[in-house]
Design goal:
single chain, 146 residues, mainly alpha, Globin-like, heme binding, transport, peroxidase activity
Length: 146
Amino acid sequence: SPFSAHEEKLILDLWAKVNVAACGGDALSRLLIIYPWKRRYFEHFGKMATDQDVLHNEKIQEHGKKVLASFGEAVKHLDNIQGHFAHLSKLHYEKFHVDCENFKLLGNIIIVVLGMHHPKEFTMETHAAFQKLARHVAAALSVEYY
């Protein structure tokens, strides 16, 4: 594993407290509000003309939950993140044509959301561990691109 035992403990301890639906919806909504041009990937999700549309779009909330649940799978596979995300990397590259830079952006937003939802537990050490995790997830999702 690229993570120390201490980093793994920090990640697992915080992740056990995460509300995936709330944090996932928040993270994806933030991505689409901060970077509105990213909405083009989700045009089939319906109305997203305004930030309020994004915040109240059930499909965005559901997909955010799905995305964060997938991120949570990385937590369960800290020793093989790349192998675990091989299929998703291929899918996002071949079918969805998602710019792999989005994986880094969303990873950073997930970290912000986790910090907001868990301010007490989100110490600098925990932040560093999750930053490392987000980097590994983004790299794993980008494998097919290079």
